[in-house]
Design brief:
Radius of gyration: 39 Å
Number of helices: 11
Order of helices and strands: EHEHHEHHEHHEHHHH
Largest sheet: 5 strands, parallel
Strand content: 5-15%
Strand order of the largest sheet: 2-3-1-4-5
Shape: globular
Helix content: 55-70%
Length: about 325
């Protein structure tokens, strides 16, 4: 694997993970570092299907969830805890294989909204399954891939749920006791792996939480060379070159205009100094080439040297 950097964001529902993931992504882009935002469940097309199932239950698929010989799903129908755990593991296996590892191999920074710690906290802490079993299952599915840093946004569920701006899903509506168990499971995970976890008080303002994350991010990315294309600089160079070309072209046109003016002015001066015989010959020639000697012939542009010479000669002819 290349020098990619894997970072996950964890916490109970409504702790502000998604907001901070996006802030981190924007900040890394400003630093010229290529980053990718993803999530679990639902980071792949297969994962989106699994996400609908684990978050909304069998009711998300009424056409295939046949109960009692009909297509009607009873409200009591739900996923068994082990089934739920296996579905999360399947989502993770696909996600790591199709998205996370390829990005890390390219040297990208991957920002993941939830990862395997959520499985341990929700399925073990909330569903009373074995934490060790869920962890081993997740590590098997991900081929042992762990984040370099996990930001745990810690908040009391009774406070964080007020931030939710959508209808609660299966896990969000599982009850206060369930959410409290999940929070305690997250904190226990952080205690076991202090080098990977950074626990942040998510009851602070968004800006205060972000400042803690930014300070830590700066340490993680220290020494990394920018790898995003400098599009703006290239455009600026192209614009500067275009301006230079325009200036050169304009200068050329100005020179051409000066040369043209000089040519017809000299021609006019020579015509004034020419012998009268030449004038008479020129006048006869002009009379033959113009209709009635009209100096306002529409066939000759009004601002052309030819029209100026024509008018000058006709004026001399009438003297």
């Amino acid at each position: 694997m290349s020098d990619g950097l894997f970072i996950s964001f964890e916490g109970v529902d409504g702790a502000g993970k998604t907001t901070q993931v996006q802030r981190a992504h924007d900040y890394l882009q400003e630093c010229g570092l290529r980053s990718q935002v993803t999530r679990e469940p639902g980071g792949t097309p297969v994962g989106l299907t699994i996400r609908e199932l684990v978050l909304h239950g069998l009711a998300a698929f009424p056409s295939v969830a046949v109960t009692g010989g009909t297509d009607v799903v009873d409200a009591s129908d739900d996923l068994a805890p082990r089934t739920e755990a296996l579905l999360y593991a399947a989502d993770r296996a696909e996600h790591v294989a199709q998205v996370v590892r390829p990005a890390l191999d390219r040297g990208d920074i991957v920002l993941c909204d939830r990862y395997l710690d959520s499985s341990v906290a929700y399925q073990a802490g909330g569903r009373d399954l074995s934490a060790d079993v869920i962890r081993r299952l997740s590590l098997w599915a991900s081929q042992g891939l762990l984040p370099k840093r996990t930001y745990l946004l810690d908040a009391d569920p009774s406070q964080s749920k007020s931030r939710l701006d959508h209808e609660p899903d299966r896990l969000e509506s599982a009850g206060d006791d369930f959410q409290q168990h999940v929070r305690q499971a997250f904190l226990q995970l952080a205690q076991r792996e202090p080098d990977r976890f950074l626990v942040i008080d998510a009851t602070q303002s968004i800006d205060q939480v972000w400042q803690v994350i930014q300070d830590d991010l700066d340490k993680l990315i220290e020494g990394r060379e920018p790898d995003l294309p400098q599009v703006d600089d290239e455009n600026d160079d192209a614009d500067a070159q275009d301006d230079a070309d325009d200036d050169e072209s304009t200068a050329g046109y100005e020179d051409d205009g000066q040369d043209a003016e000089s040519d017809w002015t000299e021609a006019a001066d020579r015509s004034d100094q020419a012998p009268e015989a030449d004038d008479e010959q020129d006048d006869q020639s002009m009379d033959a080439e113009t209709v009635g000697g009209d100096a306002d012939d529409d066939s000759i542009p009004a601002d052309s040297p030819a029209r100026w010479l024509l008018r000058s000669r006709l004026l001399r002819k009438t003297r």
